[in-house]
Automatic annotation (TrEMBL):
<keyword id="KW-0812">Transmembrane</keyword>
<feature type="transmembrane region" description="Helical">
    <location>
        <begin position="146"/>
        <end position="165"/>
    </location>
</feature>
<protein>
    <recommendedName>
        <fullName>Protoheme IX farnesyltransferase</fullName>
        <ecNumber>2.5.1.141</ecNumber>
    </recommendedName>
</protein>
<dbReference type="GO" id="GO:0008495">
    <property type="term" value="F:protoheme IX farnesyltransferase activity"/>
</dbReference>
<keyword id="KW-1133">Transmembrane helix</keyword>
<dbReference type="Pfam" id="PF01040">
    <property type="entry name" value="UbiA"/>
</dbReference>
<dbReference type="GO" id="GO:0005886">
    <property type="term" value="C:plasma membrane"/>
</dbReference>
<keyword id="KW-0472">Membrane</keyword>
<feature type="transmembrane region" description="Helical">
    <location>
        <begin position="171"/>
        <end position="194"/>
    </location>
</feature>
<comment type="function">
    <text>Converts heme B (protoheme IX) to heme O by substitution of the vinyl group on carbon 2 of heme B porphyrin ring with a hydroxyethyl farnesyl side group.</text>
</comment>
<dbReference type="GO" id="GO:0048034">
    <property type="term" value="P:heme O biosynthetic process"/>
</dbReference>
<dbReference type="InterPro" id="IPR044878">
    <property type="entry name" value="UbiA_sf"/>
</dbReference>
<keyword id="KW-1003">Cell membrane</keyword>
<feature type="transmembrane region" description="Helical">
    <location>
        <begin position="243"/>
        <end position="263"/>
    </location>
</feature>
<dbReference type="InterPro" id="IPR000537">
    <property type="entry name" value="UbiA_prenyltransferase"/>
</dbReference>
<feature type="transmembrane region" description="Helical">
    <location>
        <begin position="51"/>
        <end position="71"/>
    </location>
</feature>
<feature type="transmembrane region" description="Helical">
    <location>
        <begin position="97"/>
        <end position="115"/>
    </location>
</feature>
Length: 295
């Protein structure tokens, strides 16, 4: 990997630079869905242990983010969206980012296993492996299916939360995994449509770069249509109630409408709106899941 970052600059990293390495915005959604899996699980867990489980998910996500930034510092320096990150700016040494990521990930997995159970810890380790090795190292620079396959990493947190409470994996927790798995491509490709030139310049074969905008938009619509019935699976399996089911159906229809609008327009605004709505969609869906579970 060619290093084109400003590694010769003196390191003057401040706390906010190290926090940025952890990708806090991405982490927040990971933590939220992990918490939803914990709350929706049909088992009682002590609040302190529940807090530890969510903390482990957050720490592992941050560690994986730091390793990701370490590995991608060369392409990050080429993209407008990422060139201001701490490593391309020379604010943090690459070795520091890698060490931080490995230490946080190892701590989180071990703590999850010792404090909760090793099923949850194994899923947490698998999540990190999927994100760092399968997605970041293997897939991202090789195939336009990178976000489809590698997106599994972001789908594990509710399963981890569920396993932390129950000690096992069930069809219901698998349905939560599948919801995020099928949500990820239309969510990320909406952003990729907006940042197409960035990815082209960096040589990353995102779907819009390789297949073109028209093909990408059609695939986004297909995924939202598949997601529409899939989001009802937790209700069908008894893990959520009618409030969740109604909300999931309405949110799903709105997601499909956004995908149709993107498909029918060459302007960037529909894609930007779909990207923003996709975040709201997933947040609202898992909020409804927790609301039903808490009733």
């Amino acid at each position: 990997m060619t290093d084109v970052t400003a590694t010769n600059l003196p390191t003057n990293g401040e706390l906010r630079d190290y926090v940025q390495l952890l990708k806090p915005r991405v982490m927040s959604l990971v933590v939220f869905t992990g918490l939803a899996g914990l709350v929706a699980a049909p088992a009682h867990i002590h609040p302190v242990l529940g807090f530890v489980a969510v903390l482990c998910i957050a720490v592992a996500a941050g560690g994986a983010g730091a390793i990701n930034m370490w590995y991608e510092r060369d392409v990050d320096a080429l993209m407008n969206r990422t060139r201001a990150r701490p490593l391309p700016m020379g604010k943090v040494e690459p070795q520091e980012a890698l060490a931080l990521g490995v230490a946080l990930t190892g701590f989180a997995v071990c703590t999850m296993g010792l404090a909760l159970n090793w099923v949850a810890a194994a899923l947490l380790a698998l999540t990190t492996f999927t994100y760092v090795i399968i997605y970041t190292v293997w897939l991202k620079r090789r195939t336009p299916q990178n976000i489809v396959i590698g997106g599994a990493a972001g789908a594990f947190p509710p399963m981890i939360g569920w396993a932390a409470a129950t000690g096992d994996v069930s069809l219901a927790s698998l349905s939560l995994f599948l919801i995020i798995f099928f949500w990820t491509p239309p969510h990320f490709w909406a952003l990729a449509l907006l940042k197409n030139e960035d990815y082209r310049r960096a040589g990353i074969p995102m779907m819009p770069v390789v297949a073109g905008a028209a093909s990408t938009k059609k695939q986004m619509l297909v995924y939202t249509l598949l997601l529409l019935p899939l989001a009802l699976a937790p209700w069908f399996l008894g893990a959520a109630g009618k409030i969740y089911a109604i909300g999931a159906a309405l949110l799903g229809v709105a997601f499909v409408v956004h995908a149709v609008l993107v498909l029918r327009s060459d302007a960037p605004k529909p894609a930007a709106r779909m990207f923003a709505f996709s975040i709201f969609y997933l947040s609202a869906l898992f909020a409804l899941l927790m609301f039903d579970a808490a009733r």
